C-alpha cells in the first residue's frame, strides 16, 4: 500500500525544499541582528567538501562527516565574522559574497584535493547508509511494503525533516529569550543597544557563526544526498538564490524564510510543463513582489492579523 | 562622590565641543547641565558613556577610571542614559524595550535560552516582573504590549527612562527629558525624577526648561561654547551675571521676541 503512495520524485523535491529551508535560515539568523551575509554558498561549500573528503578518504561515518562539515563552516564563520564587524549593510554583503567566490576558486584550483572543477564523485550516500544500517538491525523495506529505493528517498526526507524542525525549534526559542532580544535590539539600533549594556561584538559574531553553521550543515547534507559536488554548486548564483528565498518569503519573520524556500523551490517544478518559460515567470514574480511588497510575502503585521482572526474565531 | 569629570576636552576636527571641563557629582544629587544650543552638553554625555572618546581628560566613576572602556561595560558598571532624540527600539513592544534595558542584570546565554533551563525561566520571570514594575513607575504599564513607535511622544520619553532604569544604574543621565512635553507631563516628570532620586540613584540632567531645572536640581553646571561658565546652586546660577548674559537673559529675549 505504502509502496504505491510513495513517489521518489516527490520525496526528492521535498528533500531539496528542506535543504533550501536550512539555507534560507542561514541568511535569516545573521539578518536578525542586522547583518546581511551573502556567504551562505561559501559556507555551504566548506561544509560539503569537508564532509565529502572526510568520508571518502578516511572512511568516517557520514554523521561524523556532517558534524565536522558544519563545524568547519562555523569556524570559518568566526574567523570571517570578527573582522567583518566593521562592515555593515551593502559592504558586508559584498565582502561575504567575495568570500564565497574565494572559497569557490580554492575548490577549483586545489586540484590534488578537490579534483578541481570536475568535482568529487562517489560521496557516500546518506540514504544507502541508512538502508545498510536498517538491514544490519534486521529491517527490510519489504517488511513495510516498499522498495529499497523508496526507502532510501523516504529516509533522507525524514532525516532532513527532523533536522529542519530541530533548527526551527532552536531559532524560535533563541528568539524569544534574552539572546533574541539582544539580537533584535542590535538590528533596530546598534548604538542604543550598546548603551543598554549589550556586547554587540559578541552577539553579532554569535549570529553570524550560527548562520555559517546552518549553511555548512545544509552543504554537508547536500553532498551526501546528491552524491557528487563541484565548485559550481557553490557559486554566487547559489548565494543570490538563497538570499531571494529569505527576501521573497519575508525577512522579518523566520516563517518567511521557510515559506520562501518552500515556494521558490517548488514553483519551477510545478511549472515544468511550460518548460523554458518558467524562469521568466520566476523573474516576473520577483520583480512584481519587490514592487508591491518589498518586505516579502510574510511579515510581523500579517502574522498578527492571522493570529488575531484565529483567536477572535475561537472566542465566538 | 559618584562621578568626577576631570579636564575633559573634545575636538571634532576643527571645532572643540568641550574645552577643559571639570565637575563632580555627589551621591544622591540631582545635578543639572545647562547651556545654549551647541554648548557641548550632549557631547559631555557621549564622553561619560564613551560613545566618543575624549581628546583629553579623565572620567572617574565610583573611584574607578572609566575613560575609554567600552560603552556596554560602562552600563554594567552602573551608568545609563536616555537620548535627546529618542532612540527606542521602535519595532519592539514597550515591555520588551524595558527588558532589553535589563540585559546587564541578567545572564542567560544561548544554551539556557534554547533549553529553557530552570534558572533561565526564573530569571525571565523576574525580569518581566521588574520591567512591569518600572513601567508602572513611569505610568506605561497599561501600554506594555504597544509597539514603541506607536506611543505618544511624552510616553516615549518616559519609556526611555524606564529602559535606562532597568539596567539598575547608580547614575542616570537624562538628555532633555522634558523636550516636547506639555505642562502636565512636565509636572509628572518632576515627580518621576524625584522618585528616582529617592531610590538612591544620582541624576545628571540636561534640560532647557529652566523652571523645571531650577526646581529640580541641587547643583547646576553651565556650559557655553564648550567651556564651563559657572557652577552652583539654582539660586547662585540665576543671579550669576555671566550666565544671565550668555544664556538665561538671552532665552528671555527669545521669549519676548
Ligand atoms: N559627532 C560629531 N561630529 C562633529 N561635530 C559634533 C559631533 N557631535 C557634536 N558636534 C558639535 O559639537 C558641538 C556641541 O554639540 P552638542 O550636541 O554637545 O551640543 P548641546 O549642548 O547638546 O546642544 P543642544 O542643546 O542643541 O542639544 C556642536 O557644535 C556640534 O555641532
Ligand atoms: Mg544636546
Secondary-structure-derived class of chain A: mainly alpha
- Rg on CA atoms of chain B, Å: 19 Å
Structural class of chain B: alpha/beta
Count the beta strands of chain B: 10
Largest interface (CB within 8 Å) is between: A-B, 25 and 36 residues
Instruction: Tell me the distance between the termini of chain A.
Output: 42 Å
Helix content of chain A: over 70%
How would you sum up this structure, described in words?
Chain A has about 325 residues and is an all-alpha fold. Chain A has one domain. Helices cover about 75% and strands about 0% of the residues of chain A. In chain A, helix 3 runs antiparallel to helix 4, helix 3 (about 40-60) runs parallel beside helix 5 (about 90-110) and helix 7 (about 125-135) packs across helix 8. Chain A is globular. The termini of chain A are far apart. Chain B has ten helices and ten strands. The longest helix of chain B is centred in the middle third of the chain and has 20 residues, at about 120-135. The relative contact order of chain B is 0.17. Chain B is globular and about 60 Å long. The chains are: A mainly alpha (about 325), B alpha/beta (about 260). Chains A and B meet through helix 8, helix 9 and helix 10 of A and helix 2, helix 3, helix 4 and helix 5 of B. The structure holds adenosine-5'-triphosphate and magnesium ion. Adenosine-5'-triphosphate (ATP) binds near residues 38, 39, 40, 42 and 84 of chain B. Chain B: One of its GO terms (cellular component) is plasma membrane. Chain B: Keywords: ATP-binding, Nucleotide-binding, Transport. Chain B: It holds the Pfam family ABC_tran.
Gist of the model:
The complex is a heterodimer of chains A (316) and B (257). Chain A is built from 15 helices and no strands.
Which terms summarize this structure?
heterodimer, A: 316 residues, mainly alpha, globular, B: 257 residues, alpha/beta, Rossmann fold, 2 domains, 6-stranded mixed beta sheet, 4-stranded antiparallel beta sheet, binds adenosine-5'-triphosphate, binds magnesium ion, nucleotide-binding (chain B), transport (chain B), ABC transporter (chain B), L-valine transmembrane transporter activity (chain B), ATP-binding (chain B)
